[in-house]
Here is the input.
Amino acid sequence: MEDLTIRLLAKRQGNIGWTGMLSGSALSTAVSLFALNINDPVCYRKEIDAGLNWLLQNVNTDGGWGDTVKSSSNISTTLLVLAAMEKAGSFVSTAAAREKARSWIASYCGSMQPQDIARAVYSRYDNDKTFSAPIMTVCALAGLLGDDSYAWQYVSSLPFELSVLSQRFYGYIGFPVVSYALPALIAIGQVVHHFNPSANPIIYSVRNAAVKPSLAKLAKIQPENGGFLEASPLTAFVAISLAAKGLSGHRVTQRCLSFLQVSQR
Here is the structure.
């Protein structure tokens, strides 16, 4: 204990305190790359190529990726990295890495079939759709869940229309979305509604009516620097969802992209 105390004190910056930074993250990098690419692959070419090179340099020996450079491979991060590589038209060659990633995913899920991927992702997060739905959204947009006409059936619908109500209402109805995930509820909910609207005419009408006010709420809760909760993954998921439904030029999307650029090391 004494030795650890000495080593800790030696790391101080003068007599002020300690400084540090978050670990490099394959998950954050992959989702951020996807967000930059889906918005403007030409404008963000430098950032995309740098991110792809980092991912290639930090792949695990089994062909997958974990949440950090020291983490074991997991299904969520490996899927997101594969999705980013599939969509990033780049001078960086990712063919070998993509093949190994597909092998890892097929081994974990049982196959690369959409239903097996969906089963694995939803099992990992139980009933928390704010984690599973964003991952499945990226998979659908990357073509990992098959043709567009079928892919969105595997992505959980999120009732973004509830975002215009008080957050206390969520607890009353037992809706499984944590309060801090409101940006994901709105953005992911809207993109799923865009590609796979409800067949129920009442729900469809309510959600259509809620698109503009919920988007206004998303803009209202976005921090000045553009980063939702200072979290690159959450911010990137928002940017991806809005861009996918044709809102690349929206103020919320552009502020998200600025945050992602500034966050890149």
About this structure: The two ends are 34 Å apart (CA to CA).
